[in-house]
Amino acid sequence: MIMKNNNVSIYLLFMDLLIAFKNDPAGHNMAKFISQDMNKDGDVYRGKNFDLIEIDSPVISADWLDEKYDYDGFIFLSKHAAESGTLALTCHSTGNFNEAKFGGNDKELAIPYSNLQKNYMQKLWDNRESFPEFEITIEATHHGPTHLKKPSIFVEIGTTSLQWNDETLCSSVAQLVMDTLEKPSHSYPFVICFGGTHYSEKFTKELLFGKYALGTVMPKHALEFLNHDLFEHLITQNYGAEAALLDWKSLGKHKQTLIDFLSTTNLDVIKI
9: buried, middle or exposed (CB in 10 Å: 19+, 13-18, 0-12)? Predict the structure, then answer.
Protein backbone atom coordinates (compact mmCIF):
# COMPACT_ATOMS: atom_id res chain seq x y z
CA MET A 1 0.00 0.00 0.00
CA ILE A 2 1.22 3.53 -0.75
CA MET A 3 0.77 6.31 1.78
CA LYS A 4 1.96 9.89 1.30
CA ASN A 5 3.53 12.03 4.00
CA ASN A 6 4.64 15.56 3.01
CA ASN A 7 4.45 14.46 -0.62
CA VAL A 8 6.86 11.60 0.02
CA SER A 9 5.56 8.14 -0.84
CA ILE A 10 5.88 5.61 1.96
CA TYR A 11 5.51 1.93 1.11
CA LEU A 12 3.92 -0.19 3.82
CA LEU A 13 4.35 -3.93 3.48
CA PHE A 14 1.41 -6.02 4.56
CA MET A 15 1.56 -9.78 4.96
CA ASP A 16 -1.64 -11.54 3.97
CA LEU A 17 -2.72 -15.16 4.11
CA LEU A 18 -4.48 -16.82 1.18
CA ILE A 19 -6.77 -19.68 2.15
CA ALA A 20 -8.45 -22.41 0.10
CA PHE A 21 -10.52 -25.45 1.05
CA LYS A 22 -8.91 -28.61 -0.32
CA ASN A 23 -12.25 -29.99 -1.52
CA ASP A 24 -13.32 -26.80 -3.28
CA PRO A 25 -12.16 -27.31 -6.88
CA ALA A 26 -11.96 -23.60 -7.74
CA GLY A 27 -10.16 -22.72 -4.52
CA HIS A 28 -7.82 -25.69 -4.86
CA ASN A 29 -6.99 -24.91 -8.49
CA MET A 30 -6.19 -21.28 -7.65
CA ALA A 31 -4.08 -22.37 -4.69
CA LYS A 32 -2.22 -24.95 -6.79
CA PHE A 33 -1.24 -22.32 -9.33
CA ILE A 34 -0.17 -19.75 -6.75
CA SER A 35 1.84 -22.21 -4.64
CA GLN A 36 3.90 -23.68 -7.48
CA ASP A 37 6.76 -21.21 -6.96
CA MET A 38 6.44 -20.94 -3.17
CA ASN A 39 8.38 -22.79 -0.50
CA LYS A 40 6.40 -25.07 1.79
CA ASP A 41 7.06 -24.72 5.53
CA GLY A 42 4.92 -27.23 7.41
CA ASP A 43 1.37 -26.53 6.31
CA VAL A 44 2.17 -23.04 5.00
CA TYR A 45 3.45 -22.05 1.58
CA ARG A 46 5.77 -19.07 2.14
CA GLY A 47 5.96 -16.03 -0.13
CA LYS A 48 7.30 -12.49 -0.04
CA ASN A 49 4.08 -10.51 0.29
CA PHE A 50 1.72 -13.31 1.19
CA ASP A 51 1.58 -16.89 2.40
CA LEU A 52 -0.92 -19.60 1.45
CA ILE A 53 -2.57 -22.56 3.10
CA GLU A 54 -5.10 -25.20 2.09
CA ILE A 55 -7.38 -26.35 4.87
CA ASP A 56 -9.45 -29.48 5.47
CA SER A 57 -12.71 -27.68 6.29
CA PRO A 58 -14.90 -25.22 4.36
CA VAL A 59 -13.57 -21.67 4.31
CA ILE A 60 -16.96 -20.23 5.29
CA SER A 61 -16.43 -21.77 8.74
CA ALA A 62 -12.81 -20.64 9.20
CA ASP A 63 -13.45 -18.34 12.16
CA TRP A 64 -10.58 -20.11 13.93
CA LEU A 65 -7.88 -18.95 11.53
CA ASP A 66 -6.43 -16.05 13.49
CA GLU A 67 -6.11 -18.23 16.58
CA LYS A 68 -3.43 -20.15 14.68
CA TYR A 69 -2.15 -17.73 12.04
CA ASP A 70 -1.11 -14.10 12.59
CA TYR A 71 -1.50 -12.00 9.43
CA ASP A 72 -2.64 -8.53 8.41
CA GLY A 73 -5.48 -9.85 6.28
CA PHE A 74 -7.16 -13.01 5.04
CA ILE A 75 -8.06 -13.67 1.40
CA PHE A 76 -10.27 -16.66 0.68
CA LEU A 77 -10.07 -18.40 -2.71
CA SER A 78 -13.39 -20.01 -3.46
CA LYS A 79 -15.97 -21.24 -5.91
CA HIS A 80 -19.11 -19.18 -6.52
CA ALA A 81 -22.50 -20.81 -7.00
CA ALA A 82 -25.76 -19.24 -8.15
CA GLU A 83 -29.14 -20.70 -9.05
CA SER A 84 -29.26 -18.47 -12.13
CA GLY A 85 -26.21 -20.19 -13.58
CA THR A 86 -24.86 -16.80 -14.70
CA LEU A 87 -21.09 -16.96 -15.14
CA ALA A 88 -19.50 -14.52 -12.72
CA LEU A 89 -16.21 -13.53 -11.15
CA THR A 90 -17.02 -12.01 -7.79
CA CYS A 91 -15.39 -10.53 -4.73
CA HIS A 92 -17.17 -9.73 -1.47
CA SER A 93 -16.93 -9.22 2.26
CA THR A 94 -18.55 -11.61 4.70
CA GLY A 95 -21.07 -11.39 7.51
CA ASN A 96 -24.52 -12.42 8.67
CA PHE A 97 -27.19 -9.77 9.16
CA ASN A 98 -29.46 -12.30 10.82
CA GLU A 99 -29.23 -16.09 11.23
CA ALA A 100 -25.93 -17.75 10.31
CA LYS A 101 -27.03 -20.31 7.72
CA PHE A 102 -23.68 -20.66 5.96
CA GLY A 103 -20.85 -20.28 8.46
CA GLY A 104 -19.95 -17.58 10.94
CA ASN A 105 -22.10 -16.35 13.79
CA ASP A 106 -25.59 -14.88 13.97
CA LYS A 107 -25.76 -11.11 13.46
CA GLU A 108 -22.00 -10.76 13.15
CA LEU A 109 -20.04 -9.00 10.40
CA ALA A 110 -16.44 -9.48 9.36
CA ILE A 111 -14.05 -6.57 8.95
CA PRO A 112 -14.05 -5.80 5.21
CA TYR A 113 -10.79 -5.74 3.23
CA SER A 114 -11.81 -2.67 1.28
CA ASN A 115 -8.56 -1.66 -0.42
CA LEU A 116 -7.73 -5.18 -1.48
CA GLN A 117 -11.18 -5.62 -3.00
CA LYS A 118 -10.96 -2.41 -5.01
CA ASN A 119 -7.44 -3.05 -6.26
CA TYR A 120 -8.25 -6.63 -7.26
CA MET A 121 -11.56 -5.82 -8.92
CA GLN A 122 -10.04 -2.95 -10.90
CA LYS A 123 -7.28 -5.26 -12.09
CA LEU A 124 -9.90 -7.86 -13.01
CA TRP A 125 -11.82 -5.24 -14.96
CA ASP A 126 -8.66 -4.10 -16.76
CA ASN A 127 -8.23 -7.71 -17.88
CA ARG A 128 -11.90 -8.32 -18.73
CA GLU A 129 -11.07 -9.28 -22.32
CA SER A 130 -9.61 -12.47 -20.87
CA PHE A 131 -13.02 -13.33 -19.39
CA PRO A 132 -15.54 -12.31 -22.07
CA GLU A 133 -18.30 -14.66 -20.91
CA PHE A 134 -18.20 -13.57 -17.27
CA GLU A 135 -19.90 -10.84 -15.30
CA ILE A 136 -17.47 -8.95 -13.07
CA THR A 137 -19.40 -7.99 -9.99
CA ILE A 138 -19.39 -7.56 -6.26
CA GLU A 139 -21.85 -9.38 -4.05
CA ALA A 140 -23.56 -8.10 -0.96
CA THR A 141 -22.00 -9.10 2.34
CA HIS A 142 -23.00 -12.68 3.20
CA HIS A 143 -21.95 -15.98 4.84
CA GLY A 144 -19.00 -16.70 7.13
CA PRO A 145 -16.45 -16.46 8.52
CA THR A 146 -17.47 -13.49 10.66
CA HIS A 147 -15.26 -13.57 13.76
CA LEU A 148 -11.77 -12.86 12.43
CA LYS A 149 -10.03 -9.89 14.01
CA LYS A 150 -8.34 -8.76 10.78
CA PRO A 151 -9.82 -7.73 7.42
CA SER A 152 -10.95 -10.48 5.08
CA ILE A 153 -12.39 -10.89 1.60
CA PHE A 154 -13.59 -13.65 -0.73
CA VAL A 155 -12.34 -14.02 -4.32
CA GLU A 156 -14.70 -16.33 -6.18
CA ILE A 157 -15.03 -18.08 -9.53
CA GLY A 158 -18.47 -19.08 -10.76
CA THR A 159 -20.68 -20.61 -11.47
CA THR A 160 -20.73 -24.36 -12.17
CA SER A 161 -18.36 -27.29 -11.80
CA LEU A 162 -17.26 -26.69 -15.39
CA GLN A 163 -15.70 -23.37 -14.41
CA TRP A 164 -14.47 -24.54 -11.00
CA ASN A 165 -12.52 -27.34 -12.65
CA ASP A 166 -11.19 -25.22 -15.50
CA GLU A 167 -7.53 -24.97 -14.51
CA THR A 168 -6.76 -22.36 -17.16
CA LEU A 169 -9.54 -20.10 -15.89
CA CYS A 170 -8.59 -20.62 -12.25
CA SER A 171 -4.93 -19.94 -13.02
CA SER A 172 -5.80 -16.71 -14.86
CA VAL A 173 -7.80 -15.42 -11.89
CA ALA A 174 -5.10 -16.58 -9.47
CA GLN A 175 -2.48 -14.66 -11.43
CA LEU A 176 -4.49 -11.45 -11.00
CA VAL A 177 -4.72 -12.09 -7.26
CA MET A 178 -0.93 -12.47 -7.18
CA ASP A 179 -0.44 -9.33 -9.27
CA THR A 180 -2.65 -7.40 -6.88
CA LEU A 181 -0.68 -8.54 -3.85
CA GLU A 182 2.80 -8.26 -5.32
CA LYS A 183 2.58 -4.66 -6.49
CA PRO A 184 2.20 -1.55 -4.30
CA SER A 185 -1.48 -0.69 -3.98
CA HIS A 186 -3.21 2.60 -3.43
CA SER A 187 -5.22 3.40 -0.32
CA TYR A 188 -8.78 4.60 -0.90
CA PRO A 189 -11.44 6.13 1.33
CA PHE A 190 -14.22 3.65 1.84
CA VAL A 191 -17.97 3.68 2.31
CA ILE A 192 -20.61 1.46 3.90
CA CYS A 193 -23.26 0.51 1.35
CA PHE A 194 -26.99 0.16 1.95
CA GLY A 195 -29.73 -1.04 -0.40
CA GLY A 196 -29.71 -2.62 -3.80
CA THR A 197 -29.78 -6.25 -4.81
CA HIS A 198 -27.34 -9.02 -3.96
CA TYR A 199 -25.41 -8.16 -7.14
CA SER A 200 -25.50 -4.38 -7.01
CA GLU A 201 -24.65 -2.76 -10.31
CA LYS A 202 -24.45 0.69 -8.70
CA PHE A 203 -22.03 -0.36 -5.98
CA THR A 204 -19.97 -2.37 -8.47
CA LYS A 205 -19.64 0.73 -10.67
CA GLU A 206 -18.52 2.80 -7.69
CA LEU A 207 -15.90 0.20 -6.84
CA LEU A 208 -14.59 -0.03 -10.42
CA PHE A 209 -14.80 3.59 -11.54
CA GLY A 210 -15.46 5.79 -8.50
CA LYS A 211 -13.27 7.23 -5.76
CA TYR A 212 -14.43 4.89 -3.02
CA ALA A 213 -13.63 1.40 -1.89
CA LEU A 214 -16.48 -0.55 -0.28
CA GLY A 215 -16.95 -1.71 3.27
CA THR A 216 -19.90 -3.82 4.36
CA VAL A 217 -22.66 -4.01 1.73
CA MET A 218 -26.09 -4.38 3.34
CA PRO A 219 -28.68 -5.11 0.62
CA LYS A 220 -32.32 -4.10 0.65
CA HIS A 221 -33.54 -7.55 1.71
CA ALA A 222 -31.40 -7.40 4.87
CA LEU A 223 -32.57 -3.98 6.07
CA GLU A 224 -35.45 -5.55 7.98
CA PHE A 225 -32.87 -6.89 10.45
CA LEU A 226 -31.33 -3.49 11.16
CA ASN A 227 -31.61 -2.54 14.83
CA HIS A 228 -29.50 -0.55 17.27
CA ASP A 229 -27.15 -3.38 18.20
CA LEU A 230 -26.54 -4.51 14.63
CA PHE A 231 -26.00 -0.94 13.46
CA GLU A 232 -23.46 -0.24 16.21
CA HIS A 233 -21.65 -3.46 15.35
CA LEU A 234 -21.64 -2.54 11.66
CA ILE A 235 -20.11 0.86 12.42
CA THR A 236 -17.46 -0.73 14.64
CA GLN A 237 -16.46 -3.27 11.99
CA ASN A 238 -16.20 -0.48 9.42
CA TYR A 239 -14.04 1.80 11.55
CA GLY A 240 -12.63 4.61 9.43
CA ALA A 241 -15.44 4.66 6.87
CA GLU A 242 -15.90 8.08 5.33
CA ALA A 243 -19.52 7.86 4.24
CA ALA A 244 -22.66 5.81 3.80
CA LEU A 245 -23.53 5.11 0.17
CA LEU A 246 -27.27 4.64 -0.29
CA ASP A 247 -29.03 3.12 -3.27
CA TRP A 248 -31.77 5.62 -2.56
CA LYS A 249 -34.60 4.15 -4.62
CA SER A 250 -34.15 0.64 -3.27
CA LEU A 251 -34.24 1.15 0.49
CA GLY A 252 -37.94 0.28 0.79
CA LYS A 253 -39.95 0.75 3.95
CA HIS A 254 -36.84 0.72 6.16
CA LYS A 255 -35.42 3.91 4.64
CA GLN A 256 -36.33 6.18 7.55
CA THR A 257 -34.99 3.74 10.13
CA LEU A 258 -31.67 3.71 8.33
CA ILE A 259 -31.60 7.52 8.03
CA ASP A 260 -32.30 7.86 11.75
CA PHE A 261 -29.42 5.53 12.60
CA LEU A 262 -27.03 7.32 10.24
CA SER A 263 -27.93 10.68 11.80
CA THR A 264 -26.26 9.51 15.01
CA THR A 265 -22.89 9.14 13.22
CA ASN A 266 -20.41 11.49 11.56
CA LEU A 267 -20.68 9.67 8.25
CA ASP A 268 -21.47 11.67 5.14
CA VAL A 269 -24.59 10.34 3.40
CA ILE A 270 -24.32 9.91 -0.36
CA LYS A 271 -27.41 9.03 -2.40
CA ILE A 272 -27.01 7.26 -5.72
Answer: exposed
In the chain the domains, ranked by start, together with CATH numbers, are 14-271 (3.40.630.50)
- Whole-number Å distance between alpha carbons of 267 and 264: 9
- Yes or no: say if 52 and 77 are a contact pair by the CB < 8 Å rule: no
Question: What are 50-68's pLDDT values in tens digits?
Answer: 999 999 999 999 999 999 9
Cβ(145)–Cβ(217) below 8 Å: no
Distance CA 78, CA 65 (A): 16
Residue pLDDT, tens place only, 3-34? 444 444 334 567 999 999 999 999 999 999 99
Q: Read off the pTM.
A: 0.94
* DSSP letters spanning 91-154: EE--EESS--SSSS-TTEEPPB-HHHHHHHHHHHHHTGGG-TT-EEEE--S-SS----SS-EEE
Those residues with Cβ within 8 angstroms of residue 45's Cβ, 6 or more apart along the chain or in another chain:
34, 35, 38, 39, 51, 52, 53
Which amino acid, residue 4? K
